[in-house]
């Protein structure tokens, strides 16, 4: 088998600018960075349902007004959605209970301020694009696509009092460093997506130069491997699909930065031995 295979699995009409997803019980739960809905897509039935996160939820929200939900993760019986923090109105966290369907909103502005202070990041350089919960702590992934170019992981307790920041070096394309776009935990590894955009702004999009899949050791955050998977796509969502002895499969979504309500879902299959052949790892 090749190191990896990437193929278009299906299209979903009715969702645009997909930024994160979770595969659960033969359904995909998907977020969009310019929408205030949580979407549920039944794969077998090919049915899309929209879950209102606010009373006046809408799609294609103007950039200056959007909540910019870039991260979704599961903790217990709840999904958590995080705003990127790249502008003051992008500081919300939404929880959705899978059983009761209850929705709770929390303003994370005080915690996001602490994140910026901890990592010495300016207001316009914070850009969170991945989240996971492990061992009673939150792991938030900073996409360093701003002028300060700080990729890294924030680790904080549930109250947001004890915060640490760990910078993570990633590969480059045309001398531009890749930046985190999502991350998930699979056993003892953090698998992540990273994209390269020709921009120094967390607000304005740039030319897409490619995307990587990679993994970090959970205990040390050492980059175990990286592999370029596309030269044209900006993949922003990652979820585990299947995991066997030989292969691991993920589902990916792509943010095309348009108002078209259509989302492509890709399947990425990795040969678990391929990292031995990898030579994309950033040099120390």
Short characterization:
The protein has 284 residues and is mainly β. Helices cover 4% and strands 53% of the residues.
List keywords for this structure.
about 280 residues; mainly beta; four-stranded antiparallel sheet; disordered C terminus
Structure description:
- By secondary structure, the protein is mostly beta strands.
- Helices cover 4% and strands 53% of the residues.
- The chain is built from 1 helix and 22 strands.
- Strands 1-22-21-20 form a 4-stranded antiparallel β-sheet, with no helix packed on it.
- Strand 10 (128-134) and strand 11 form a beta hairpin.
- The radius of gyration is 17 Å and the shape is globular.
- The relative contact order is 0.17.
């Amino acid at each position: 088998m090749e190191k990896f295979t990437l193929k278009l699995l299906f299209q979903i009409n009715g969702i645009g600018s997909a930024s994160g997803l979770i595969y659960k019980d033969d359904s995909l739960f998907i977020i969009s960075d310019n929408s205030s809905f949580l979407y549920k897509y039944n794969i077998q039935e090919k049915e899309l349902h929209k879950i209102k996160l606010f009373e006046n939820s809408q799609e294609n929200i103007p950039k200056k007004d959007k909540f910019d939900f870039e991260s979704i993760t599961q903790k217990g019986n709840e999904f958590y959605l995080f705003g990127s923090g790249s502008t003051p109105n992008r500081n919300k966290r939404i929880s959705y209970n899978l059983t009761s369907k209850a929705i709770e909103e929390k303003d994370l502005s005080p915690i996001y301020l602490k994140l910026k202070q901890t990592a010495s990041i300016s207001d316009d350089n914070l850009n969170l694009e991945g989240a996971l919960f492990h061992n009673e702590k939150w792991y938030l992934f900073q996409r360093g696509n701003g002028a300060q170019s700080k990729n890294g992981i924030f680790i904080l307790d549930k109250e947001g009092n004890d915060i640490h920041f760990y910078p993570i070096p990633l590969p480059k394309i045309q001398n531009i460093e890749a930046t985190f776009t999502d991350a998930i935990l699979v056993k003892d590894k953090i698998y992540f997506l990273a994209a390269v955009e020709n921009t120094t702004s967390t607000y304005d999009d740039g030319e897409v130069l490619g995307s990587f899949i990679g993994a970090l050791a959970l205990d040390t955050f050492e980059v175990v491997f990286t592999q370029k998977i596309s030269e044209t796509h900006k993949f922003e969502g990652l979820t585990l699909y299947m995991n066997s002895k030989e292969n691991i499969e993920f589902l990916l979504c792509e943010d095309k930065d348009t108002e078209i309500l259509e989302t492509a879902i890709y399947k990425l299959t990795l040969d678990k031995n391929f990292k031995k052949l990898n030579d994309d790892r950033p040099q120390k």
